[in-house]
Structures are given as C-alpha cells and as structure tokens.
Amino acid sequence: MARDGSMPKVFAITSKKYQTPYVAVIVLGVLSVALIATNSLEIHRVASLFADLFYYVLGIIAALALRKKHPELKRSYKLRGSRSGAPVSAVIYVLMMTQLDANAFITGVLWCVLGIAIYLVCRWKYGKAGEFTLDLAASGADDVPPPEEKRAMDREYLIWKVIVSASCVIAVVLYIFPFFVK
C-alpha cells in the first residue's frame, strides 16, 4: 500500500535480504505490544473480529463486482453458487457484526472511518505511484490446476458446503428452539 501511495512511503522500505517491509512489521509489532501492555487485548480482540467480518464483506462485494465488471477474465476455478451464496454470506457477516457488543461495533466503525481518512490523506499527500495493472501470468490466475488437484478442490468444496449448510441449519434450529419450548 505504501508503494502505491496509500500509506506513508516509510512503510514501503523493504529488507534487502528478505524483501519484507520490515518498517511496517516493526511498527505493527510495537503497536501490538502496546495493546498487550495496556491490558486492552479484549478491546483489540473484539475490534479485530469486527474488522475480519468487515473485510469479508468487502471481499465478497469486490469479488462480485470483479465478476460483473470483468467477465472476460479467465478464471481457473469457478465456484458454483457464488452468485447467490456470496450475497447471503455478506448479509450473515453484517448481521454478525451487529451482534457484537455495542462498544465494539462503534469502535469498529470508528476505526474503519479513521482508516478511510488516513487512506485519503495519504493518497492526497503521496499521490499515485502508478495505476495498478493486473498481470494474470504473474498472479497465477491463468494457472489451471491438474485434474487430480481439481478433483481434490471439488471434494474439499463439497465437504465445506456440507459443513456450512449443516452449521446454518443447526444455528437456525438453536435460534428458533427457545420460541417453541416454554
């Protein structure tokens, strides 16, 4: 993000040996230690849960938008049921976000607003480093898995689908069960 101009340039400094953004890693480590040292780990945990759910929703929206905006892109693996399942998942994640503690929800929203503000300020101050171009060959998006790997992926997807479906049914039953037992 720093190389793209979305964060201060100092976070783009990478190790010559490992090519990792060591400044960003150190800053994140110091912030994590500070959160632990100030006994605010519970707040951090709940805010992280909010952020995880929020980013899942953003990822789902981005994936759906990409499929609609760029249907010509070759996809090596197409997830069946994503047009209906993805929006349902996004709604479930939003509902889960609203079930968090009120302070956690408000804190999560404030952190998201703060993050957007930081992004906009950095974008304005550091400008664009260059437009992003999607290199399909470098990203591996063009890679087609061998038949045995595709079968394994399909099998894993089927297992995942059964587990998620069963979990949803169990959750609904557990939710409505108290209304019928009095």
Automatic annotation (TrEMBL):
Regions crossing the membrane: 21-41, 47-66, 78-96, 102-122, 158-181
Protein name (database record): Amino acid permease/ SLC12A domain-containing protein
InterPro entries: AA/rel_permease1, APC_superfamily
Primary location recorded for the protein, binned into one broad class: membrane
Subcellular location(s) per record: Cell membrane
Key words of the record: Cell membrane, Membrane, Transmembrane, Transmembrane helix
An annotated GO cellular component: plasma membrane
Membrane topology: Multi-pass membrane protein
Domain of life: Bacteria
Keyword field contains Amino-acid biosynthesis: no
Any Pfam family: AA_permease_2
Keyword Zinc: no
GO molecular function, one term: transmembrane transporter activity
